[in-house]
Specification:
Blueprint (H helix, E strand, L loop, with lengths): L1 E2 L5 E7 L35 E3 L10 H7 L6 E7 L8 E7 L3 H8 L2 H7 L3 E5 L4 E6 L4 E11 L3 E6 L9 E9 L2 E9 L6 H21 L16
Antiparallel strand pairs: 1-2, 2-4, 3-4, 5-11, 6-7, 7-8, 8-9, 9-10, 10-11
């Protein structure tokens, strides 16, 4: 993944090596909502979310060094641009398969009662302010979340309104039905910098994904964080 210099987008460059590489119409693309499609475009005529083969052309949005590296393979280059929350800012990403329906997963990531089953034991809801507070270590740390976008059962997005480094970061949970269950894709976006705490949170989110998975699949792991410690 390469971060583009313009418009707060990132550029995902895939070089497809196959028997069909270079043949007219060969290859595939993944577009919005994971749908496969073929969208021919002329150079410079890209739209957000499009994925299009442009034989012999490496777009200007690709960084200079990368353009040189891709020049000899431009017949096999596919470009995709997507808007990212936070533009070029760091973000944590995880993906995990869960053997449960999307509706069950969604309930665990979109409600205070859901959070309390796998994330934090100390969860309170402020109905007037439409916020949720999660307390950690006897409330030495409290993260206040406000819902940004809820689209059951496909997507739940929260913004954090507290915390020195979590302030204004976004928690994004996206679900997609898959044979036998649900693929959950998670992003903690809009961090200001890739600090030691950012890296530590990446580790913690990995553990939390498995707690969430176990909970959705009918097990009872309990929340990773009790009121005053971690559940180890």
């Amino acid at each position: 993944m390469f971060y583009g210099p313009r418009h707060g987008t990132h550029i995902l460059v895939a070089v497809l090596f196959s028997r069909n590489a270079g043949k007219k119409g060969a290859g595939f693309s993944v577009g919005k909502a994971g749908a496969s499609h073929f969208t021919p475009r002329t150079p410079g005529n890209y739209r957000e979310g499009d994925c299009a083969p442009v034989p012999g052309v490496v777009p200007e949005a690709v960084p200079g060094v990368l353009r040189l590296l891709l020049g000899n393979f431009s017949d096999m280059v596919w470009i995709r641009t997507d808007p990212l929350p936070g533009g070029l800012l760091p973000q944590i990403r995880h993906a995990i398969f869960i053997a449960a329906p999307a509706e069950r997963v969604y309930g665990l990531v979109s409600t205070p009662s859901g959070f309390s089953q796998w994330w934090s034991e100390d969860v309170t809801e402020n109905n007037a302010a439409h916020t949720v507070d999660l307390g950690f270590f006897n409330r030495a740390t409290v993260y206040r979340l406000a819902a940004v976008r809820m689209a059951p059962p496909q997507s739940a997005e929260w913004v954090c309104q507290s915390g020195q480094e979590w302030q204004d970061t976004h928690l994004i949970f996206d679900t997609a039905s898959k044979e036998g269950g649900t693929m959950l894709r998670f992003a903690h976006a809009n961090w200001k910098a890739e600090t030691d705490y950012f890296i530590s949170c990446n580790t913690t989110w990995g553990e939390l994904m498995f707690r969430l998975k176990a909970c959705a699949e009918g097990k009872e792991p309990g929340p990773l964080f009790t009121r005053n410690a971690m559940a180890y």
